[in-house]
Specification:
87 residues, alpha+beta, Beta-Lactamase, three-stranded antiparallel beta sheet, 3 strands, globular, Longin-like_dom_sf, Sedlin
């Protein structure tokens, strides 16, 4: 389906003057970010760290891989990463 083996697909679209950047996991889960042209290195670092958090959730035997992630702790950590890496 994808031509690139790289999970970080960079800018895949534009919407209302903003960039849409994508990250696709080996399991085909997609993370999307809508932004105004931030540093590619910062976005790559953000997606990489969010993916690590995501993997920890998926490896939890009490979490079903097909259910939504509703963890407040996950949400809090993603927001902290965004603040630290994206600004």
């Amino acid at each position: 389906m994808w031509l690139s083996k790289e999970p970080h697909l960079k800018i895949v679209d534009r919407f209302n003057g903003l960039n849409v950047t994508a990250f696709v996991t080996p399991g085909n889960t997609r993370f999307l970010m809508l932004h105004d042209g931030r540093s590619d290195d910062a976005i790559r670092a953000f997606f990489t760290e969010v993916y690590e958090l995501y993997i920890r959730i998926m490896l939890n035997p009490f979490h079903s891989p097909t259910s939504r992630i509703t963890s407040r702790e996950f949400d809090r950590k993603v927001k902290l990463l965004a603040k630290r890496l994206i600004g």
